Amino acid sequence: MGVFRFVPFLVVALLAGCGSPPPPHPTPTATPSPTYGPPPPTGLSLSVGQVEAGLGHRASVLTLTNRDTAPRKVTGYPDLKILAGDGTPLEVKVERGTSYFARDLGPQDLTVQPGGKVVAVLAWSATVTSGDKRTGAAIAVVPVPGEPAQKQPLDTDLGTTDTVTVSSWATEVGA
User: What confidence category does residue 34 fall into, taking pLDDT thresholds of 50, 70 and 90?
Assistant: First the structure.
């Protein structure tokens, strides 16, 4: 008889679970994020190195490779923009010169042989003072004037500085 006194409670518990099913969870609408294709197979091809960090500073090496069969001229500094996750440009100040990670030699006239490379260093501080932190998801770089921008993913945690520094194109970092 002891077991039968729990049967009514069991029946009530089972019936309580027989109600209508819970409403379906809302399906999140995904914001399409831009995709960045591989670098072009000809011309000057941009690649972006991994982000290096040190004492609140960040940097990435930008490399241009000449994929043409003839030498190419590269002069001065990369023309670049920091892009948000949706691909729109952020309001970020781009300074030219020496940074925590790289010495800038100033603008040079370089000839890049077929298969040859030149580099520049993009650097920024992740310092947070006051206000909202800003981050970028990619960069758009015009390697030389008159060519289209090449976009590559690059996470930039800009803190609250909203400033990046880029060195000039050179044959090697700091040289």
Answer: low
Residue 97 is classified by DSSP as S
Task: Supply 16's token pair.
Answer: 């309580």
**What does the pLDDT read at residue 10?**
47
Q: Where are the beta strands (DSSP E) in the chain?
A: 44-48, 52-54, 57-66, 72-75, 79-83, 93-96, 109-112, 117-125, 134-142, 150-159, 163-166
Structure tokens at 7: 């049967």
Spatial separation of the C-alpha atoms in residues 160 and 92, rounded to whole Å: 10
Of the candidates 113, 126, 112, which has an alpha carbon nearest to the alpha carbon of residue 55? Answer: 126
The identity of residue 135, as a single letter, is: T
